[in-house]
């Protein structure tokens, strides 16, 4: 994990492997900031959806039980959202480097769309 001091806050950049390990141990809440359409087509199973267009940093829950890690398609939107959370007073926040593309690139499972039926399906 890479860390960057932003004023009095810390921005963490996690790899897909780090996110997968922490997510499997239920140590983090993974928040997808892509559009609803992107999420419906394919997403990480169990990730929550909070599209960047509707993001309100002041509405984020505290992180006493689980850490929050944002992700998007490439890492650009999730970094912007993480920085917005810092601007709103969050002391420590994280995002996934490379986004969903990195997740898929490391061959981690996700929910995709079966193009023949339109139904969701697990992709390994």
UniProtKB/TrEMBL annotation:
GO molecular function term, any single one: thiosulfate-cyanide sulfurtransferase activity
SMART domains: RHOD
InterPro entries: Rhodanese-like_dom, Rhodanese-like_dom_sf
Pfam families: Rhodanese (PF00581)
Origin superkingdom: Bacteria
UniProt KW Transferase keyword: yes
Rhodanese domain location: 24-112
Key word Calcium present: no
Residue spans crossing the bilayer: none
Gene3D superfamilies referenced in this protein's UniProt entry, alphabetically: Rhodanese-like domain (3.40.250.10)
Alphabetized UniProt keyword annotations: Transferase
Entry-linked CDD domains: RHOD (cd00158)
Name of the protein: Rhodanese-related sulfurtransferase
Originating organism: Salipiger aestuarii
């Amino acid at each position: 994990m890479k860390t960057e001091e932003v004023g009095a806050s810390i921005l963490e950049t996690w790899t897909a492997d780090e996110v997968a390990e922490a997510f499997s141990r239920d140590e983090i809440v993974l928040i997808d900031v892509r559009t609803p359409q992107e999420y419906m087509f394919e997403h990480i199973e169990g990730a929550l959806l909070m599209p960047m267009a509707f993001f309100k940093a002041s509405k984020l829950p505290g992180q006493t039980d689980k850490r929050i890690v944002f992700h998007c398609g490439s890492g650009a939107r999730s970094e912007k959202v993480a920085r917005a959370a810092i601007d709103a007073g969050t002391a420590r926040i994280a995002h996934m480097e490379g986004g969903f593309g990195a997740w898929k690139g490391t061959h981690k499972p996700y929910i995709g769309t079966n193009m023949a039926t339109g139904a969701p399906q697990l992709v390994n």
